[in-house]
UniProtKB/TrEMBL annotation:
It catalyses: a 4-saturated-(3S)-3-hydroxyacyl-CoA = a (3E)-enoyl-CoA + H2O; a (3S)-3-hydroxyacyl-CoA = a (2E)-enoyl-CoA + H2O. Could possibly oxidize fatty acids using specific components. InterPro entries: ClpP/crotonase-like_dom_sf, Enoyl-CoA_hyd/isom_CS, Enoyl-CoA_hydra/iso, Enoyl-CoA_hydra_C. Belongs to the enoyl-CoA hydratase/isomerase family. The keyword Isomerase applies. One of its GO terms (molecular function) is enoyl-CoA hydratase activity. It is an enzyme of class 4 (lyase). Its EC number is 4.2.1.17. PROSITE patterns: ENOYL_COA_HYDRATASE (PS00166). This is enoyl-CoA hydratase. One of its GO terms (biological process) is fatty acid beta-oxidation. Keywords: Fatty acid metabolism, Isomerase, Lipid metabolism, Lyase.
């Protein structure tokens, strides 16, 4: 397996685990980190043996945001020409297999944005989410003002982006930002368990489910429902759909072959 400087990569059966690994900077998101992350995500996307990906950090920080030391001397022309916060940053949203964010500690700024780009977030009880860019004289640049607002509504998103206030795990769960909270010591095992369940199912269908749920954020209800129904119909062309229903009728576990 490729060795990276800013991340650690493992496989657990059919699950690919990526751990952000810049402990000296609380996993601050630097350009080299995003290059590593994109490469690792693409490798798992291309690997037929992988059905789900978990993205995690350390017990202290998922990621404390964009690397402020890397950013501090950039000019408007630098960030504009690089399209900073797009190239590399949003790569995870191009991954078609399900991606779970397992968040412990700080998920601030770009860290919160990266977690929200994943398909769902499982939070440790010490997780803290925030968009503190306002304290630096700037603002969210990787979707924070948009994804946080869709996740938790205008009132909380506006307050968090305007004041930099952090949400703890309990508030994040109440607000719908995270799917559930688990004790810090169980975070990785719980995220892997959810990922193993997803990876044991039919990959083409889990990919379609991801597409359908994501469509809810991009389209009208009528169009979204129509899109979902067409995807549902298309599962009837998949051997795994036949196998899943046959296995139910025959009272045996299904054996999905991703076809
Ligand atoms: N960028 C670069 N380095 C960072 C960093 C960041 N975002 N966050 C933490 N670090 C570094 C610190 O500079 C420190 O390094 P040194 O030991 O070399 O000084 C090390 O990580 C440990 O950090 P602290 O000593 O600050 O740790 P703490 O426990 O006292 O505080 C914290 C933790 C509250 C998260 C604090 O580190 C902090 O406020 N970090 C910045 C958070 C932030 O503003 N994030 C938003 C960034 S902007 C952004 O993300 C833009 C966007 O939308 C794309």
């Amino acid at each position: 397996m490729t060795a990276y400087e800013n991340i650690l990569v493992e496989t657990h059966g059919k699950v690919g685990l990526i751990r952000l690994n810049r402990p000296q900077a609380l996993n601050a998101l630097s350009t080299p980190l995003f290059i590593d992350l994109a490469q690792a995500l693409d490798a798992f996307q291309a690997d037929d043996g992988i059905g789900c990906i978990v993205l995690t950090g350390s017990p202290k920080a998922f990621a404390a945001g964009a690397d402020i030391k890397e950013m501090k001397d950039l000019s408007f022309m630098d960030v504009y020409f690089q399209d900073f916060c797009n190239t590399g940053w949003t790569h995870v949203t191009t991954i078609r297999k399900p991606v779970i964010a397992a968040v412990a500690g700080y998920a601030l700024g770009g860290g919160c944005e990266l977690a929200m780009m994943c398909d769902f977030i499982i939070a440790a009880d010490n997780a803290k989410f925030g968009q503190p860019e306002i304290n630096l004289g700037t603002m969210p640049g990787a979707g924070g003002s948009q994804r946080l607002t869709r996740a938790v509504g205008k009132a909380k998103a506006m307050e968090m982006c305007l004041t930099g206030r952090q949400m703890d795990a309990a508030e994040a769960e109440r607000a719908g930002l995270v799917s559930r909270i688990v004790p810090l010591a169980d975070l990785e095992a719980e995220a892997l368990k959810a990922a193993e369940k997803i990876a044991s199912l039919s990959l083409p269908v889990t990919m379609m489910v991801k597409e359908a749920v994501n469509a809810a954020f991009e389209t009208t209800l009528a169009e979204g429902v129509r899109f979902e129904r067409r995807l549902f119909h298309s599962t009837f062309a998949i051997l795994d759909r036949k196998e899943g229903m046959a296995a139910f009728a025959e009272k045996r576990p299904a054996n999905f072959i991703n076809r």
